[in-house]
C-alpha cells in the first residue's frame, strides 16, 4: 500500500514510462491486461473493428479538432502541446501516409495553424494581453511550425492555391468520421472527447493498472484474492467509501493532469539538453499540481473526464475473510503510521485510511481501546496535514478535527475504564483485555492544546472584516465546549499539572469576554422576588468571575511552572479590569510583582502583560482614576508602538529592519482580531487622562523653568495642533482632545466638555465602554473639577478674593465640592490663599513670586551652571584630574546649594512679606 | 577664561549723554592712537534718527542709516544722515552701495555734507553687540578710519532720557579682525578681552544758537507735567525684558563654554593618545632591541587636532552680557532713586 503512495512522488520515472507507453501502445490495445478497468469505453472500442488507416487518421483528426478548439479560445499553450502530439501521431502513421499520400486535412491544419500563428504574432496588442505561458508557447510553436512546414511546403502551397477542394474533402472526411462516431455513441462530441481523452489518459490508465497490480500483489500478501464483497457489506460506511473513492479519483486526476505538462516538459528538456534542470522544474510543477488537485477535491475533474475509465476500486484494508482481530488492526495501524511524516506520503489518503480503519474496528467490535487509539492517530494526522507551521487548517479539516475530538471525548466519558496517558508505553498498552482497565497511549490534553493553536491560527489568517471570520468565530463556542469537556475529564483523571494546563486553556478562552449576564445581574439589585432569585441560581454557574477565581486559585496553588501561573495571573487581572474591579486587579498586579520581571518572559506573555496593563489603565479610567490610568498606559503609549506591543499588527516602519523569518515569527504572535483592544479608545483614554493631569499642572507651573512634562505624547499632540496653519473644527479624536485641552487651559469647562463628549466622540470612543453613560458622567465631573483648578491657577493673580459661590456657579459644581477642591489646593500649597468661612470666599495671599522674581531665580540658576562649566575649563587648563578635581566639584555643588538657598530665602522673604 | 572676564566685568565704560544743549560727555575717551576723540552731533541728526525709528522701526526690528559729516581735528562732526530703506525679502537685488552713492550725490547737489563718516542703528533693549555690527563696523572703519556707529535706544528714550551712544572698534580689535583669526591663541596673543572690543566716544549734541534760543523759549512754556515719563515708577516690564535677554545670553555663554570644554577635552585626549603611542613605540623598541624606532610623525599627522572653536562669538556674548548688566544697573539705580523719592513724598503727604 505504501509503495503505491510512494510511486506518486516519483514522477520522473513515471512520466518517462507513460511517454513510452504513449509511443508504443496503440489506442485501445491490450485490453485484456486491464481486467480492473470497468470503463464502458473499453467495451465500445472493443466492438468496433477498423482498419489501420482509419485508426491512424482518426487519431490525427481528433488531435486536429483539439487544436482547432484551442485556436478558437486562443490557448496557444494547448496548441503547442497538441501540435507536438500531432507530429508524433503523424510519425506513427507514416507507413500509411506513404501508401495513401499526405492527407488533405493534415495539410490544412498545418496551413491554418501557421496562418493563425502569424496572425497572432502580428497582433501586438493581443500579445501584450497574453499571459506569460501563452506568449512563450506562441513563439516556440511559431518556430516549430515553420520548421515543420518546410517539409510540406509543396502540399501547403497547393492547398493554399486550392483550399476549396481540400476543405470539401475535409468536410467529407469529417462526415465520414462523425458517422463512424455515431455508430459508437449517440453523442458525437462526447465520443470525440472520449477518444481524445482516452488517448491522453492512456498513461494514467496504464498507471492505474500498474498500481492496481501492485495492490493485487499486496492483497496476495494478505493471502487472499481481492473481493468487493468486503466492501459491500460495509453499507454503513458508505459515506467514507465515497470519500475514499473520491480520493482515488483524485489520485488519478493528478496523474492525468500531470501528463500534459510532463510531455511538454520532456520535449523541452530534450530540446535544450538541460535535463536535470527541467526535472527539477517538473518536480515542482507536478507537486504544485498535486496541491491544486487537492484543493479541488477531485469533484471538478470528474466532469471533464467524461468517458474515461474510472477506477471504482477502493483500496482494500484487509483481504476478504480475514479475521479482523486486534493484532491485525494494530498491525495495519502501525503500517499506516509508518508512512507518516515520510516524504511523498499522501496525507489526505492516510487520514482516510485511518478513518476506514476505525470503521472496521467499530464494525468488528474490537473494543473502545483500539478505537480510541486510532482516533488519537487520526487527529494527529489531521494536525500533520499541513507540513508548514504557518499555514492553517482548511475549514473541512478543522470541522473534522473538532468532530473527531468530540467523538473521542464521548468514548472516553462513556468508558471510564480507559486510561489515556502520554506516559503509557506502546508495549504496556492494553487495548483489548477487557478484564483489566484499558490503557492507551496518547495525550488528550496535547491534542486539545494543539486544537486551540490551530484555532488561533485560523483566526489569525482570516480577514477580520469578512463574514468568514464570523463563521469561524462561531467555532469558538465549540472549542470552548471541548475544552470544558476535557477539563471535566482531566479533573477526574489527570495529574495536577495537566489540570493546570487545561485550566489555563479555559482561562485563556474566558478572560477577555465581558460577562454581560453577571453585569446585568449586578445592575438589577437583588430584590426579594423569588423569580429573580431563581434566575440568579440559574446563572450562578456561568458567572465568569467565579469561574476565573476558581481556576486561577487552583493554578496559583498547584502550578509549578512559572509560565502558567504568570499567564493565569495576567488573565485574572485582565478579567478583573474588564469587569471594573479595579482594586482587585491593581492589588493582584502589585502583589504578583510582575512589573519587575516581565521583561524576562517570552514575547507572547509580554504581549499578554501589555494587554493586561492597557486593560488595567482603561479600567482605572472608567473608575475616574485618571492618574492611575495615565500611569498604566504611559509605557504602552509613549513608545508609539502600541499596535505592535499589543500584538495587534505589525508596524510598517520596522518592516525593513526585520527579515522574512522574523516577520513570520511575529506574525504568528499576533492576537486574533476578536481579542483586540481598540487602539483609538486606548489612545483617547490616555490623552484624556493626560489632559486632565497636564493642563492644571501646566497652569500651576507656568513660570517654572524646570517644569517637567507629565506626558510627552500629549505635548506632542498639542504642538501638532498648534502647528496647524488653519484651525478648523476638530475631526479626529486627537483633534478633539487638543481642542478640549485648549478650552480647559482657559478654564472654559463647557467648551471642553462639548469637545470631549459629543456625537463624534461618542461614536468613536465612549460608546465602546460597557457602561458608557457612567463613564461620561464621570468624565464631565472630572472636567469640571480640573477646569476649576486650572482656572484658579491661571487667574488667581488677578483676584484678591473670590466667592466660592461664584465658582460653584461657574463650574456647576456644588459648594462642598468646590470647598474641598480649594482646600486641597491650599493644603498642597498649590494655591496661596485662605478660606474665609463667614463670607464663603477665597482670599488670595499673592505670595507667588512675581515675573521678575521668577526670572531672577532662573537667572541665578543659569549663572550657577555657567560658573560650573567655566570652572571645568579651568580644570582642563591646569590639567588636574582625580582627587583635586573631585574636591573642586564638591565645591561647586556647595556653591550651587548656597545659591539655591539664596533663592529660597528670597521666596521666604516674599511669603513673609 | 570666561570667569576671569566676569571678574573684571565691573570696570565698564559708562557715559550716558542726556539730552541737552551741550552735555559734555566725560567718558574716558578713546585710546591714544584713535583718530576721533569726540563726536559732535547736530540736533538735526538726532531728530532724524528718532524720527526714522518712530516711523519704521517696531519691536525687535532695527533701523539703520548712514551718517554724514566731516572730521575737524580730533572731533568728528556729524551734520546729517539718511536712512537705509527697510529690507524686505522681495527686493533681494536691492543694491545698497548704489543707493548710498546716489543718495550722497543727491545731497551733494543741495550742498549738504556728503562725506561718509559712519552709520547708525537702533537697538532693542541694548542688544546690539552682535557679529553683524562688528563686521559692518569693521568694514566701515577699515575703509573710513574715523567712522563711528551711533546706537540709538528708543525704549530708554521713551522713558524720558535720550540714549544715544557712539562706538568705535578699538585698534586692537581692528588688528584681530584684519587677521581674521579668532582662535583662542590669537586672541590671547592680541590680549583682547570683551572690555576692549569697543570704545565709546563721548558725544556732544550741538545746535545752532538760534535753536538754543528757541529751546529756552519753549522750555519756559512747557509744563513740568509733560515730563512725567521720567518719574514713572512702572519698571517691571523693562527689567523683565532685560533679564530675559540677559538670561538668553547667559545660556549662549554656557553653551559656548561647553563647546570649548569639549574641544579642550578632545585635544588633551589626542595628546594623551600620542603619548601612549610614543610609549608603545618605546616599549617595542626595547623589546626588539636594536631595531630602529618607527617614525612617529606620520601618526601625529594622521590625527588632525580638532578645530578650535572661534572665540569671537563668546567675546561678543560677554560684551553683550556686559551691556545688559550696565543697563540693568543703571536702570535699577535710577529706579531706586525714584522709589525713595516717592516714599519720601508719600511720607511728606501723610
UniProtKB/TrEMBL annotation, chain A:
Where would you find this protein in the cell?
A: Cytoplasm
Q: Write down which residues bear the modification named Phosphoserine.
A: 9, 11, 13, 15-16, 18, 39, 166
Provide the positions where the record notes the PTM Phosphothreonine: 524
Q: Single Gene Ontology BP term?
A: formation of cytoplasmic translation initiation complex
Q: Where's the PCI domain?
A: 673-849
| Positions of transmembrane segments | none
Kindly state which keywords UniProt assigns to this record, in alphabetical order.
Cytoplasm, Initiation factor, Phosphoprotein, Protein biosynthesis
Quote one Gene Ontology molecular function term.
translation initiation factor activity
Q: Where is the composition biased (Polar residues)?
A: 522-531
Keyword field contains Membrane: no
Q: Where is the composition biased (Basic and acidic residues)?
A: 199-216, 261-278
UniProt GO cellular component terms:
eukaryotic 43S preinitiation complex; eukaryotic 48S preinitiation complex; eukaryotic translation initiation factor 3 complex
Biased composition regions of type Low complexity, renumbered to the chain: 8-21
Record PTM: Phosphorylated. Phosphorylation is enhanced upon serum stimulation.
Q: Which InterPro entries match?
A: EIF3C (IPR027516), EIF3C_N_dom (IPR008905), EIF3CL_C (IPR058999), PCI_dom (IPR000717), WH-like_DNA-bd_sf (IPR036388), WH_DNA-bd_sf (IPR036390)
Tell me how this protein assembles: Component of the eukaryotic translation initiation factor 3 (eIF-3) complex, which is composed of 13 subunits: EIF3A, EIF3B, EIF3C, EIF3D, EIF3E, EIF3F, EIF3G, EIF3H, EIF3I, EIF3J, EIF3K, EIF3L and EIF3M. The eIF-3 complex appears to include 3 stable modules: module A is composed of EIF3A, EIF3B, EIF3G and EIF3I; module B is composed of EIF3F, EIF3H, and EIF3M; and module C is composed of EIF3C, EIF3D, EIF3E, EIF3K and EIF3L. EIF3C of module C binds EIF3B of module A and EIF3H of module B, thereby linking the three modules. EIF3J is a labile subunit that binds to the eIF-3 complex via EIF3B.
Q: Which family does it belong to?
A: Belongs to the eIF-3 subunit C family.
Record-linked HAMAP family: eIF3c (MF_03002)
Return the protein name: Eukaryotic translation initiation factor 3 subunit C
